[in-house]
Specification:
single chain, 171 residues, mainly alpha, two-stranded antiparallel sheet, 2 strands, elongated
């Protein structure tokens, strides 16, 4: 990263005399770093959804934890995100938010429903899981209370927040 000359960051008291010497005055602006910051934010979101997708596959294929119906719906919304966000990285296109944010929002809604079902806020009789693994049972809990749907909700919320921030920066 190139260093900017001091004349870029500070305005001299006598700007007219300073301009006569051939210097230029540019006010520091947060918008000048937006493409670089936007790319880094999109890259962080891509890393997060890639890790979440690989973690989901690891839990089902390596640890032999069968996913329930709601877990499958969350996967349906999580698995396209790494591909979408990667396509938005090279070349950098902040418009990828138009496609990725709704997918993350719906996936987050499914994860929230699943989390509320496991915690007991939503009764188990309303669970869509009729066959296979029960959606209301926690198969794995980290630290004694963090379940897989909570991890999914955290991932969708973080990616949704990052994409929302990128949307605000690019508008």
């Amino acid at each position: 990263r190139q260093r900017r000359p001091a004349s870029v960051w500070c305005r001299p008291r006598n700007a007219a005399a300073h301009l006569e010497k051939g210097a230029h005055i540019v006010e520091p602006d947060a918008a000048t770093d937006t493409p670089e910051r936007g790319w880094m934010l999109l890259f962080a979101c891509w890393l997060l959804v890639t890790g979440a997708s690989l973690g989901s596959v690891f839990l089902s294929e390596i640890m032999d934890l069968p996913p329930c119906s709601l877990c499958w719906y969350q996967r349906i919304f999580m698995f396209p995100l790494p591909i979408l966000l990667f396509c938005g990285l090279f070349p950098f296109d902040p418009k990828v938010v138009r496609y990725a944010l709704p997918i993350a929002a719906v996936g987050g809604a499914v994860a929230l429903y699943h989390t509320l079902l496991q915690v007991g806020v939503i009764p188990a009789t309303v669970a869509p899981c009729r066959q296979g693994v029960s959606c209301s049972d926690a198969q794995l809990q980290l630290f004694g209370f963090v379940s897989i749907p909570m991890l999914s909700l955290a991932a969708f919320a973080a990616v949704g927040g990052g994409l929302w921030t990128l949307r605000r920066w690019s508008s």
